[in-house]
Amino acid sequence: MSETFGSSRLAWWERSVALIEAVAARRTVHLASEPEGERWGTIRPSDSTATMASEPTRPLDMAVVGDSLTVGCGVERQSDGLVPDMARSLADVIDRPVHWRAYGRLGATMRRVRFRLLPQVEGQPDLLVLCAGSNDLMARRSEAEWREDLGAAIDEARTKCDHVVVISSGQVYRSPALGRTLRKAVLTMTDRQTAISRSICEGKRVQFVDMTHYDTGLRDDDFWAYDHFHPSRRCYGLLADGVIGQFEDGLLESLRKA
């Protein structure tokens, strides 16, 4: 039988406690729904007047495909979510307008990304970002399944775009909606998934962004949305800065010229 993430790293009694807490969470956690609004838009650099003379004929085209983070669960409008915040941050860094598109679904695993969401991406974006993993952990999908789905999703993404970025799972292990032992189990699983993802991305020569361990500096009251499971409006902005801040210089230079 394929090993699930971190299944051998908890004491036997901790596994039982974590299982009980997981059952309780399914009954008590009420996840924020997908917010309303268009799942696309164009963001200009903050100092737009400085770029008027040299602005490219078209904005950079960025598509992000993934789970509830991709569609901004936890905020009221799509425009307040992670993807438009990434576009704002990226536009300022490369001094170029960014057209963003979000293809996501609450509860999406990497398998759903691979088979359902990636095929929805139209055209040839300049930057394609994969953002999923937390639901694979919560569903206790195996390491072998993760390796297969992430690797295949990257391969499919590269047929659509030369510049592919993979974002790690979020920080569900911090969620105050989960029990203490379950949070410990989720952290162990997330650490293992992150290590595997980094290795796969290195092998396929695509940019990997570790948001699992990114410190926003926010305490729980400010980090979480009202469901205590998804990021708050403020947190999405800081996470977006963290994503773009980890882009390699070579990638940023390529995006300036794309």
TrEMBL record:
One GO MF term: hydrolase activity
UniProt cross-references to Gene3D superfamilies, sorted A to Z: SGNH hydrolase (3.40.50.1110)
Domain SGNH hydrolase-type esterase as annotated: residue spans: 64-236
Keyword Phosphoprotein: no
Protein name: GDSL-like lipase/acylhydrolase
Pfam families: Lipase_GDSL_2 (PF13472)
Organism: Bifidobacterium margollesii
Domain of life: Bacteria
Keyword annotations of the record: Hydrolase
